[in-house]
Every structure is written in structure tokens, then in C-alpha cells.
Design goal:
This protein is an alpha/beta fold. It is 42% helix and 13% strand. The chain contains 14 helices and twelve strands. The longest helix is centred in the N-terminal third of the chain and has 21 residues.
């Protein structure tokens, strides 16, 4: 049995609503039962009737005798028990989940032969679809010697929004930052031609600004079979710090498709040059002001695609606190 020192002031603080008479009666009952013992050297509180100002509290230690038996005889042989032998107090908290995993391996291990999504597998084993994703379920399984690969699940990306004019391979694919331009180009491809500013595109993807970081993995994971071909990808967005950073971050990530081929993302330079020319014709001073608190820490990749004249024009616009939205171009400009 363990003991620890507790103080009268802390006992009072735990039940501030109790009158002194009731508090005295409760403490005297615990003294008679032996769960509290006065610390004689600490003295009393000076009230009538007096109470000790400190006590030894005796706490019965939990009995973990049955834990070893359960670990020895009730779990599937694939499960490692070392952690719970060292931490039997944790076993009581995790027992339900441990038994669910053990039962699954005993009765349904054949289900692991077919891959499922993370949330599907999580629900199948534990009855909670977010256990792996949000509740530490993978670390829990790892404590028992079951690693992610053995669970045979795959991650699901945010679904990609795209329109395909054809599914031939290889093909040129255009990633658009903003929704209006995506709809405009999709409409143009549907009703006029899939040649945009002189370049043939067979698929257009809606990037949704920084949302492309989450959704592009749907492309590399093969949302469509033809995405695994050696296609050429191009990016087109706003000409401001944020649009530039979106491209540089996206293009700088080590993407590989299911075929193991590196996925390269170039810039649709012709579209940006068209934006710059159109902005110059209408007067750069008439451009909108850049949104406040944009991160201006761009790299050199974006500018490296342009000739010197356009580089200087881009830098001039950015330093002036201006930007060019890609909506400066519309269906009149794509042909």
C-alpha cells in the first residue's frame, strides 16, 4: 500500500462548499477507517474541534496479477506484449482496443490481403473510422508490433477537380489557380478548341490556390489511368507573391506517379506574358494593390522562365505593391 502526504488546506480547497462541521465529520471517518493518519509533528489548525494540518493518505495499489495471464494466453501470436508487461497500468486503459485487434487478426486476418482506405481499415478493426488518422491508432498498433504496412491501407487525398478534353497519352495538362479562369478555359475547350494561346491542352485542373498542395497527390496516385503517362504539366496563376510561391512550392516537391516517374511542373509562360502585355496596355498604375501581409520571400525559379524584359516588368509590378490577377485574361484571349 502506498502513502503520500496531503494537507488540510488542500482537502478544504477540493470541497469549498462544505461547512467546517461536515468537513470535520468526513475527516474523522477516514481517520477511523485508517485511510488517513495524522502527521503528528505538523500540529493542528487551532480550531475547535481541531484537525491535523497534514495527513498521511494510504492508497491501495491496483492488482495487475491478471494482466500477465491475459498477455500470455488471450492474444494473437502476432501481437508483441513487451510494452504492456512493462506498463500493466496502461493495459487496463487499452484492453478493449487490444482485444479488438487480437480478435480481428484471429478471425479476419484474410481481409488484410485486399487494400482498403485508412478510415475503412480503422473502422473495420476498431469500430472508429478516425482511430488511425486522429486518435493515435497507428502508434497504438506499433506498440503491439503491428506496423502500418501490415495493415495494408492507403491514404486518400482530397479529390482533384479537372476536365479532360481527351484521355490520349501523353498529353499537356494545365493547372489553373483560380476558379473563374478554370471555368472559362473549360468552356472554351468545350465550345471552341483545346488550343490555348497556341498550345494544345487535353486536361485542365482546378488548383484552388494553395488547395493544390492537398489535391495534387490525387493526380500522382492515379485518379485516372492516363495520369500515369509521361504527360507535360504546366501551371498558370495570379502574378503576385502568393501565386508565385504556390507554383514554386508545388514545382519543388518531389512528386512521382504510380509508375515511379518524376512529375515535373513547368510554367505556362505564354499566358503570363499575355497578362503582362495586356496590363502594360491598360497602364500598370491601374493594377490592383497587392493583398496585405503576403509572404514576399519568393525564390528564383519562377522568374527564370522569363526573358529579361518580362523579368524586369514582373519585379517592377511586385515592388510597386501591385499584382495581375489571372482573370485579366478571358475567352477573348485564348485563341
Amino acid at each position: 500500500m502506498k502513502k503520500r502526504k496531503v494537507f488540510l488546506k488542500d482537502i478544504i480547497a477540493q470541497s469549498p462548499e462544505k461547512e467546517y462541521g461536515q468537513l470535520y465529520a468526513d475527516i474523522m471517518l477516514e481517520l477511523s477507517q485508517g485511510t488517513l493518519v495524522p502527521v503528528r509533528s505538523a500540529g493542528t489548525n487551532g480550531k475547535k474541534p481541531a484537525l491535523p494540518v497534514a495527513f498521511w493518505e494510504y492508497v491501495k495499489e491496483p492488482d495487475y496479477g491478471d494482466v500477465s495471464e491475459k498477455l500470455d494466453f488471450k492474444l494473437h501470436p502476432l501481437l508483441h506484449t513487451t510494452y504492456y508487461r512493462k506498463h500493466p497500468e496502461q493495459f487496463a486503459q487499452d484492453e478493449d482496443k487490444i482485444m479488438r485487434l487480437s480478435t480481428y487478426l484471429t478471425e479476419h486476418i484474410d481481409l488484410l490481403e485486399l487494400p482498403e482506405t485508412m478510415n475503412e481499415r480503422s473502422f473495420e478493426i476498431f469500430g472508429r473510422e478516425k482511430f488511425f488518422q486522429q486518435e493515435g491508432g497507428l502508434q497504438f498498433c506499433s506498440r503491439l508490433g503491428i506496423e502500418r504496412g501490415q495493415l495494408n491501407f492507403y491514404d486518400t487525398a482530397e479529390p482533384l477537380s479537372y476536365y479532360s478534353y481527351t484521355k490520349k497519352t501523353p498529353q499537356n495538362i494545365l493547372i489553373i489557380e483560380n476558379k473563374d479562369t478554370f471555368f472559362d478555359i473549360r468552356r472554351y475547350m468545350n465550345h471552341v478548341d483545346n488550343r490555348i494561346l497556341g498550345k494544345m491542352f487535353d486536361t485542365v485542373i482546378y488548383g484552388a490556390g494553395k488547395g493544390i498542395y492537398r489535391t495534387f497527390s490525387d493526380y500522382v496516385q492515379g485518379a485516372e489511368d492516363y495520369f500515369n503517362a509521361e504527360n507535360m504539366l504546366y501551371y498558370f496563376g495570379d502574378l503576385d507573391y502568393e501565386g508565385i510561391l504556390i507554383y514554386e512550392h508545388l514545382a519543388g516537391m518531389p512528386w512521382e506517379n504510380l509508375s515511379g516517374k518524376a512529375v515535373r511542373i513547368d510554367l505556362f509562360v505564354t499566358a503570363y506574358e499575355k497578362m503582362l502585355d495586356k496590363a502594360e496596355n491598360t497602364g500598370l498604375e491601374n493594377l490592383p494593390d497587392t493583398k496585405e501581409k503576403q509572404n514576399s520571400n519568393i525564390g528564383t525559379l519562377f522568374l527564370s522562365f522569363f526573358k529579361q524584359r518580362y523579368q524586369e516588368q514582373i519585379v517592377q509590378i511586385l515592388r510597386a505593391g501591385k499584382y495581375i490577377p489571372q482573370e485579366i485574361l478571358n475567352e477573348h484571349d485564348w485563341g
